[in-house]
Design brief:
The chain is an alpha+beta fold. Helices cover 44% and strands 26% of the residues. It has 6 helices and 5 strands, in the order H-H-E-H-H-E-E-H-H-E-E. It has a 5-stranded antiparallel sheet, with helices on one face. The longest helix is centred in the middle third of the chain and has 18 residues.
Length: 157
């Protein structure tokens, strides 16, 4: 081995020296695939509650658990039994819960807007809970050929 290679290797930190990274508020960032069944709302509640407890954000737990459950439930109502992705992330002093589903694209803008309005109205409980805690929520089409919907909740500590 050449001397330049030895020097490069000495610059790398060893895994043993660094040790494991403990859960902290600033490193809360998870994504999970959910299979899309009706039971996924319960899985989302459990996962979000556990993550917030481990990362020191249990004060947001009740609202965040409700938000995750409502996002998954709405996705299931509009696109039953299709995989979805749940993301939970702390960034810029706020908790972001984002759900991507596989709701098919609509043929016309009018139909798409009617569907979006229908889904928005179905999320009244989410809207009330997030508003009560000074947060925000929304949904938008995912700009892929197959469609999809991105729905989200933003909560401040």
């Amino acid at each position: 081995m050449s001397n330049s290679m030895k020097g490069a290797l000495r610059c790398l930190p060893t895994a043993a020296a660094a040790g494991p990274i403990p859960p902290a508020t600033e490193n809360l960032s998870y994504s999970m695939m959910l299979p899309g069944g009706a039971y996924c709302a319960g899985l989302a509640r459990e996962a979000v509650g556990s993550l917030l407890d481990r990362h020191g954000l249990s004060g947001l737990g009740e609202t965040a658990v409700l938000a995750a459950s409502e996002l998954v439930s709405a996705a299931y109502r509009f696109t039953p039994d299709r995989e979805m992705i749940l993301r939970v992330r702390w960034r810029f002093e706020a908790l972001r819960i984002v759900l991507y589903d596989q709701h098919p694209a609509h043929a016309s803008l009018d139909t798409a807007e009617e569907c979006r309005d229908r889904r928005s109205r179905s999320m009244w409980l989410l809207a009330a809970a997030v508003d009560e805690h000074g947060g925000d929520w929304g949904l938008a089409p995912v700009l892929t050929p197959g469609g999809g919907t991105k729905s989200w909740a933003l909560l401040h500590q």
